[in-house]
Amino acid sequence: MATDPLAARTVTALTEGSASMPPVGRERFIADVVVTCDEADAVHGPGVVDMEDGRICWVGPKADAPKACTTMSVNDIGGLLMPGLVNSHCHTPMTLVRGVGDGLPLQRWLTEAMWPREGRMTSEDAWWGMTLGSAEMLQRGVTTTCEMYLFEESVVDAAHQSGARLVMTPVVISESSRGFQDRITDLVEFHARHHDPAGRTSVGIAAHSAYDLGVGPVVELAELARSLDATLHLHLAETQKESAVLEERFDRSITRILHDHGVFGGRVLAAHCVWVDSADIELMAEDDVAVAHCPVSNMKLGAGIAPLVDLRAA
Questions:
Q1: What structural domains and CATH numbers belong to the chain?
Q2: Which residues of the chain fall short of a pLDDT of 50?
Q3: How far is it, in rounded angstroms, from Cα 69 to Cα 27?
């Protein structure tokens, strides 16, 4: 799991009722250990983090901290203070159906357990699922999540209420009540409303997968993401057989298919990447594709283990 470059003021904001975390002037947090996760991997013990209007303005050893002004709130919290963790691939509203379909392989889990239930979900259901998931993540120090889901307005609102940071990538799937072109219009308008990289919400584009949508629609979504200077988020090589039809048709791996069609030409976040070989990894490295390898999900569904050492080495 990655780390958020901004430290979390608290991991219990939602459960304690201060969800929106408005600016509060100048604050100082003193901890036994401050882990910065900066380029030098600096660790300060004891350390200080100063904030002004909700943003970090100074980090360093307690002995070197600037003199606290009379209006500064000083909090000696002890313990460990570090940047928040980042959940780099999630479908958080699915907390509402947690445990359903346990033991099923991916395709049966999707088609028999998940999609029929998600087809009955409402925007309010998604809001509550995201709210529950946000509370659980914040309690465990996860302050940022990258979401691939429908009901994107509800997901954004729930994340905003919780005080979490959000990368929202509204997903395009084949089983949708919206036509493909209508959905693209939705995405463009949603991006215009909510994309705010300087704030707590940024917006990307999610293509569920090539095996679900087909190669052509994924290419079109990749082009859309590039036109918006947004991240393209998709599932890739999660299971060994999911893309067998496409791989037989094109006589190459799904990773090579997408590479050859220019899908990896922009900023791309590929989820799972369990069944990629050395040639696939070389292509992904060439295109600077980011990977969220999702070990817990892969174990739950018996998908396999991503070649993480090789991916990192590339």
A1: 2-81 (2.30.40), 85-313 (3.20.20.140)
A2: 1, 3-22
A3: 10
